[in-house]
Amino acid sequence: MARNRRRADSGISGCVIIDKPAGCTSHDVVDQLRRRFGTRKVGHAGTLDPDATGVLVLGIGVGTKLLQFVTGVDKTYTTEIVFGVETSTLDSSGEVTARHDIELQPGDVGAAAEQFVGPIEQIPPMVSAIKVDGKRLHELAREGKEVEREPRPVTVHRYEVEPTDEPLVYRAEIECSSGTYVRSLAADLGTALGGGAHVRNLRRSAVGSFLLAEAGGIDEAELLAVGELLRGMPTLDIDAEQAIRVGYGQTLGPSPQKGRLAIRDDSGTVLAVYEDREGELWPVKVLQY
């Protein structure tokens, strides 16, 4: 009997910035990039809802080892908030669950949005991917169940709204910490104004320094160097002898500064991430190409 054989891995590594289209999940994008680059080693740095579009940062090959340094960065979103209508999913894909007869003035909407700027606590929606007792909330929601959820601390840096030509529809741009639910922000704003709300046309325009302007389609987005996943992190260039020590995960002696450093060899290739611990450089993540 012939044995099943796994397809050989291409060995390709890097970073890809995708403009995710509507109608597919973030995992769908991962699957398509696995086929495109001939490797199973593909991961993303933060899920986007199937109906949402915009920036999705992915690591290929060795790049998957650095996604942890992208996951927690701030995000920026644009969306439209439809006031007066609540839905089961807090967005336009869900069933309408309530309608409210409300009147809004732009100044009132802007003032109410400002109340959500800063550190806040947010209850994850039932349509989120958070697990409770081993099951994702959206799976429980599909079963018609609702469970208690603990509030989570998030930070909203900017929450700007402006009216559109449609009554009770406002454009919004939101800059927030990782883990913030924009749909919940919209619903809570609707409640604060005396009625419900939901979002439509949700689009992520930035993940940290990764911008929509540099994102591409799944089939043509450029493969960037692995080191791009450490944008903004200070670097330290080392010699060949030190590079051998890094390969074994050894310390690198006195630290030149506080915080984390991207360690590069004399060709500019990122070898590892180190951090200062009591004045000495210790490894956080060592890459094996």
Low-pLDDT runs of 5+ residues are: none
CATH topology of the largest domain: Pseudouridine synthase
> What kind of assembly state do the chains in view correspond to?
single chain
Q: How large a portion of the residues is in β-strands, by DSSP E?
A: 25-35%
DSSP strand count = 17
User: How many individual helices?
Assistant: 6
| Alpha-beta classification | alpha+beta
Shape: elongated
Helical amount: 10-25%
Look at the structure and name the CATH superfamily of the largest domain.
Pseudouridine synthase
The averaged pLDDT comes out at 92
Query: How are helices and strands ordered from N to C?
Result: EHEEHEEEHEEEHEEHEEEHEEE
Our count of domains comes out at: 3
Rg, Cα atoms, Å? 22 Å
In this structure, how is the largest beta sheet organized? 9 strands, mixed
CATH architecture of the largest domain: 2-Layer Sandwich
What is the CATH level 1 assignment of the largest domain? Alpha Beta
